[in-house]
């Protein structure tokens, strides 16, 4: 026994596992250099002969500064597993090959990113280790080693004459978990003192380089998504308030086409083509521009733009939530080769709040914009705006299923729907994991609100008030109001909404009281409520002039208001539990979850009726090796079922 280290507490309570193990193990190492290797990395025999050359780099100073971290190029070997693996290869090429070369050489803002970097052991063992391990704030523990080294006058370089192998994520959920973890980590970095100190000590140009290559990228992603909402809600206000109609009456607006053409041209740039330009240039330099152009076209045909648009939503959601509420936590990622079908319930738990809710919100905004807006309908601007927003909404709603193996197989669809209904119906409780019950998942999904401060909770409530805009604007456009514009109309709409909520509460109480033992009484209660509903609707149609369009307009107006009530109630969770009203909120939330799940699942079920769609997805979106793996998995599953039945 050489050393015995007494820890100040249980290892799981001190900090995150990986950085704690690194900093603990560094004292047992020998020599002057230390290389960090991730679990998903590999090495090659011929590259080992270059290690002596790399270590000689420590002897070369740079302007009187000691080299403290030597960066090494990575070679991705998982690009042939799936089309997603190929996308991640090209993304890694843009960052590792192009990005880190520039970050280290001219910009001097390269840090440690969890790759196979070589550390000056003597330098780092006397300055806090090779990573920071505090929970939450140091979620992205690796980059803090680079921060620490730079703050203490270290010098970080990058070398491309040596490389190590690396396996990137190849499954949709794997990639999303990784992106969520990195986005959470960047949110915590934004709040950390390390970033503040670096920003204070850098000169202006180096500070800008540091910003745009670290937290600035995620901040820009968040701003991009926020601008979409600001634009759509601004258009919604113009349409529902009548400003849109006044613009049409102005003849000067129809004659001014310059701004319209400029915005239409800008929409082409916003498709993200410029973001792919560095990747095309790098592949062109390494393999030739014909190969680069061919790869670019194939990526577009394999829906790379749709995939990266989806990941934009992942980055923006988790980064914004971390800034607003904090409480980032480590998300374990399966580093194996994921070649299996993810259930609908699993996809729903992972993407419900980050993508599905936002996608449906944009879809409702576009519907209202289409129904009540009249300006620019015949212009290029309207076409580009509508197509780009529909593209964004469709990407956020259906990408997890598009890149999910066998998502459009009919039997898988039936099994997924059955499993999802079971998941929605199971009761939560102590020891029930979130993948087994919707109630347990809801508690875990709102866990960050328990640790949020007053400012974050108030801001979330303020943001939830945007959903009341639908009700406030649409009710004045209904035929039953007879063009009245006073507040009494809005107050009457709230009375209708409250009555609807009371009826839903009565149904919920009836199900709890009579559902199991007195099913006849419960059916009688539902029949009476249904007859009352028909009576009220008949009176409104005959006497007050309610129309069919008013009925659908009321649905669009009241559904967002109910969702706003749910969001506000989740913030006031503790108060509602004290008043014993939290169960009512859960019942209302479950009803919304059923509606959202049905809307999202319906297109999948329709496409699953056609066997050609499933074959096309497997053969086109996934390469031959992935398809072969799917077939082998199906065969093995079939044999397993036979053995179990026997």
Automatic annotation (TrEMBL):
Record carries keyword Manganese: no
Stretches that traverse the bilayer: 210-232, 381-403, 458-475, 487-507, 527-545, 551-571, 591-612
Organism: Mucuna pruriens (Velvet bean)
GO cellular component terms listed in the entry, alphabetical order: 1,3-beta-D-glucan synthase complex; plasma membrane
GO molecular function, one term: 1,3-beta-D-glucan synthase activity
The organism's taxonomic lineage, starting at the top: Eukaryota, Viridiplantae, Streptophyta, Embryophyta, Tracheophyta
Coiled-coil stretches noted in the UniProt entry, renumbered to this chain: none
Domain Glycosyl transferase as annotated: residue spans: 1-460
Protein name: Callose synthase 7
Cross-referenced InterPro entries: Glyco_trans_48_dom
Keywords: Membrane, Transmembrane, Transmembrane helix
Record flagged with keyword Zinc: no
UniProt record, GO biological process: (1->3)-beta-D-glucan biosynthetic process
PANTHER family: CALLOSE SYNTHASE 7, LYST-INTERACTING PROTEIN LIP5 DOPAMINE RESPONSIVE PROTEIN DRG-1
Domain of life of the source: Eukaryota
């Amino acid at each position: 026994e050489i050393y015995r280290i007494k820890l100040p507490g249980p290892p799981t309570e001190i900090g995150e596992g990986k950085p704690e193990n690194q900093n603990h193990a560094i004292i047992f190492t020998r020599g002057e250099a230390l290389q960090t290797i991730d679990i998903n990395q590999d090495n090659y025999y011929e590259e080992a002969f270059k290690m002596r050359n790399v270590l000689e780099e420590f002897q070369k100073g740079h302007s009187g500064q000691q080299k403290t971290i030597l960066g090494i190029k990575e070679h991705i070997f998982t690009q042939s597993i799936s089309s997603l693996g190929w996308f991640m290869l090209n993304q890694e090429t843009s960052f590792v090959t192009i990005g880190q070369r520039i970050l280290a050489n001219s910009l001097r803002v390269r840090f440690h990113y969890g790759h196979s970097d070589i550390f000056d052991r003597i330098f780092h063992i006397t300055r806090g280790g090779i990573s920071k391990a505090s929970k939450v704030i140091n979620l992205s523990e690796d980059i803090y080693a680079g921060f620490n080294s730079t703050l203490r006058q270290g010098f970080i370089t990058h070398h491309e004459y040596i490389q190590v192998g690396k396996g990137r994520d190849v499954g949709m959920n794997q990639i999303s978990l990784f992106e969520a973890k990195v986005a959470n980590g960047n949110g915590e970095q934004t709040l950390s003192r390390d970033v503040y100190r670096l920003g204070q000590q850098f000169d202006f140009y180096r500070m800008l380089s540091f910003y745009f290559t670290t937290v600035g990228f995620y901040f820009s992603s968040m701003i991009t998504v926020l601008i979409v909402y600001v634009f759509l809600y601004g258009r919604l206000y113009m349409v529902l308030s009548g400003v849109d109609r006044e613009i049409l009456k102005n003849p000067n607006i129809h004659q001014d086409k310059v701004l319209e053409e400029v915005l239409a041209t800008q929409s082409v740039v916003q498709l993200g083509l410029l973001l792919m330009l560095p990747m095309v240039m790098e592949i062109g330099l390494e393999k030739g521009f014909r190969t680069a152009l061919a790869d670019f076209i194939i990526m577009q045909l394999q829906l790379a733009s749709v995939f990266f648009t989806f990941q934009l939503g992942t980055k923006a959601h988790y980064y914004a939530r971390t800034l607003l509420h904090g409480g980032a936590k480590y998300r374990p990622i399966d580093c194996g080769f994921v070649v299996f079908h993810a259930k609908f319930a699993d996809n729903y738990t992972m993407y419900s709040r980050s993508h599905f809710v936002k996608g449906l919100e944009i879809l409702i905004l576009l519907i209202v914009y289409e129904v009540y807006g009249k300006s620019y309908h015949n212009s290029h601007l309207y076409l580009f705006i509508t197509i780009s927003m529909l593209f964004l909404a469709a990407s956020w709603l259906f990408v997890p299923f598009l890149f999910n193996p066998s998502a459009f197989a009919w039997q898988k669809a039936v099994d997924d729907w059955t499993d999802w209904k079971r998941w929605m119906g199971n009761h939560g409780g102590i020891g029930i994991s979130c993948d087994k019950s919707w109630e347990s998942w809801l508690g875990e999904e709102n866990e960050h609100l328990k640790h949020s401060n007053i400012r974050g909770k108030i801001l979330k409530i303020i943001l939830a008030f945007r959903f009341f805009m639908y009700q406030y604007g649409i009710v004045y456009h209904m035929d039953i109001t007879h063009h009245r514009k006073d507040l009494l109309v809005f107050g009457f709409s709230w009375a209708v909404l409250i009555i609807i909520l009371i009826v839903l509460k009565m149904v919920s109480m009836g199900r709890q009281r009579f559902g199991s033992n007195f099913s006849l009484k419960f059916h009688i209660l539902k029949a009476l409520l249904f007859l009352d509903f028909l009576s009220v609707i008949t009176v409104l149609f005959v006497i007050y002039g309610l129309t069919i369009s008013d009925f659908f307009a009321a649905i669009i107006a009241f559904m967002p208001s109910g969702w706003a009530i749910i969001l506000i109630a989740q913030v006031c969770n503790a108060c509602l539990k004290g008043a014993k009203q939290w169960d009512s909120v859960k019942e209302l939330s479950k009803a919304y979850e059923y509606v959202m799940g049905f809307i999202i699942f319906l297109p999948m079920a329709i496409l699953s009726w056609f066997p050609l769609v499933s074959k096309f997805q497997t053969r086109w979106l996934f390469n031959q090796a992935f398809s072969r793996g799917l077939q082998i998995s199906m065969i093995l599953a079939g044999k397993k079922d036979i053995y179990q039945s026997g």
